[in-house]
Design brief:
The structure holds two protein chains of two kinds.
Chain A: H1 3-14, H2 35-67, H3 83-89, H4 92-124, H5 130-142, H6 145-156, H7 162-169, H8 181-209, H9 214-221, H10 226-237, H11 239-254, H12 258-263, H13 275-284, H14 289-319
Chain B: H1 3-9, H2 13-24, H3 26-32, E1 45-49, H4 55-66, E2 77-81, H5 87-96, E3 103-104, H6 110-116, E4 120-121, H7 124-133, E5 156-168, H8 169-175, H9 183-195, H10 211-222, H11 239-253, H12 266-274, E6 280-284, H13 287-291, E7 298-300, E8 313-323, H14 329-342, H15 344-348, E9 355-356, H16 359-362, H17 365-368, H18 371-380, E10 384-385, H19 397-401, H20 405-416, H21 421-435
Parallel strand pairs in B: 1-2, 1-3, 8-10
Antiparallel strand pairs in B: 3-8, 4-8, 5-6, 5-7, 5-8, 5-9
Classes of the chains: A mainly alpha, B alpha/beta.
Amino acid sequence: MSTTTAQSGLARARRGLAPGGPGGGPSNRKSKLSSQTRRTFFWLLLPSIVLLVLIHGYPLVYAGVQATHDGSLIDTGNFVGVENFGHVLSSPAFWKAAQFTLWFTIVGVFGSWLVGLGLALLLRTKIPAGGTFKILLLLPWVVPIVVSSTAWNWLVATPDSLIPSLFRSLGLGTPLFLADPNLAAVMVMAFKVWVSFPFMMMMISAALASVDTTVYEAASMDGASKWQQFSQITLPLIARSTYISWILMTIFCVNDFPTIYLLTGGGPVDATTSLVVLAYRTVFQDFQTGPGVAIAFLMTLTLVVVSVFLYRQIRKSSVE
Amino acid sequence: MTVQSEASSNFSRRGFLGLTAAAAAVPLLAACGGGSSSSSSGGGIKFWDMPWATPAYNDAAKKITEAYAPTGSNGKAGYQIIQWNNFYQTYSSAIASKTGPAVSTGGGFQAFQFEQQGQIAYADKVVEALKKNGQFDDFLPGVLEPFKSDKGYVAIPWQLDMRVFWYRKSLFDQAGVALPTDWASLLEAGKALKKIGAVGFGTGAGAGNNFGNHSMIMMMVNNGGGVFTKDGQLDVMNDRNVEAIEFLLELHSNGIIDPAAVSYTTDNMSAQWKDKKIGYGVFQAGAAERIGDTSGDFAVASPIAGPHGDKGTLVFPNNIMMYKNTPSQESSEAFLVYYMGQLKQLWQQKLMAALPVFKSITELPEFASNANNVKIVKEWQPIAKTFAAQGSTLNANLAVLDGGQALNQFTQTILTGKTDAKTALQAFKTGLESVIKK
């Protein structure tokens, strides 16, 4: 088989088309909805729109008011313009939290994706009791975070906890996993990956299930190696699902309060304080409502920018 | 393909962005959204209470509330438990929406925060009523005064959360060292305990654990210092505070403070006590019951003297407050007077770990049969000071100090040992200045 033929086969495979399958591109049928149908759709959607505006719109507007005032949760206080944003942006604590949030998100998204991908591929092969494994692997996602954080705490918190004892018995000293700022950061990220990989595994498993297995047979007949099949068929075919899972996990990570707060409370010495933890502490521990809500606004803005960027990647992958 | 299937197969940019924006707005919603919690009590007085002890406590408090038989035109009272989780937000949103309680317990400095915002009804008439029924004279010394502001009594104390030193007799026996009586002997005892693998100054500052914070201020107070001057001005850098923090750093550098304590939750700390890893340290009244060791091996120690002979500890006088938003101020006052008169039931039923505010309750056989309680009342209560030390009047700023980021960071810095006293105190002072309202 020529190289051209192999590439053509891989290109077809990337679009999820088996040999002999239909060769057309995406459907170009565009329904021209009548104005009456549009009106019907509008009236059907209206209750949901009103509900969404009430649920999301009001708090957003109110948060905007709080972020530009110097009051409390009860009294709005005086209008201070963007002073709260300036105060937050000039605070070293904000930038330290932003830096941790960035690392936490990068490790949380890609760490859980890599583990989830590996396990999804493993579970795709025929292994004994695969269904049972799948259920067991879902446990970190299913178990309430309060329970799992307590379990992790007891595994590492004191010098006599299981993991430090294990290290000691191996002659590796007694690491203070939650007391050392650097190790605490690593622990929180590892905990996030552990909690999140089942979500990634399920997303990838669903994407892999929709891939026609005959494309691999075709690629194999075309002489593609396992790595080529993985890198040029599997990954492109699940790219759309991957980008969506990255977007969702990015949002989950940036907004993740309990994982961090329950395990370390943001410490020691702010080593694991993320932006959402900082926002919480600023509002509810320091009672600085305006600056706290301003932090939340900045987080939201960043998330929208990141999400739009990743959304463009999805569209790009769809076009390709 | 039907319209429906085509619509579902198209990946709508607008729809996706809408969903993304909605999901991304979660922190904003979390930051500003407040679930209003209202309880109907049939037009009577709404009394909100916290889970101060086991559920049996709330059952008993509810019974007391529902047994209230008002006289004249006063309304009856309804009872509702408010969880500690986000309690300040719960109260704030309820008060803002005029659905809050008429009377409540709550955070130690909550009354002063809401007073600052004009929401608290002063309790002077309640104090007058307590004077008439004899309960005023029954208060333990120095318990009521901190609640008196220029405008009146902001709240009425009903229980005391005290920080005291506890010790393990068996570990001191094993180490062959006497109980400390001052800082110098605390250092020596700590070194002896370290030799047998035990901790000589047990504390903790992990997630949700305020004992570390309290240890810092307790040692300042023990040395005659404190965060504020007598007239309520910030006074973080005074010599006594510096000396106290230098001593704590000395304890740390000698391995007398557990290097992992910075991350200990309250449960971790309790487990360390239970497992006989801590020989001496800071805890609270009722700690023996809390860790499940009432054998007598785990007991309250006597107060120790600082290098200048000062003795002192921290107390958090928890209180009951009244709000302006009430169906009838007279009804609120009448209910509060009634409730204060029924408090002894809670100690008679042994439902409370904290100390009572009334001398008569400390003399109840159910309370006096506990040697640790008696020791705390006799030896620790008279020397106890509030977070307002060196001053005495409580205020809203203390809520920022207690559990705020400045004190948390300061405590954790000390417990990691990677600082010197003056640098840490200066950072603490700067942090407090940025959040305390002048």
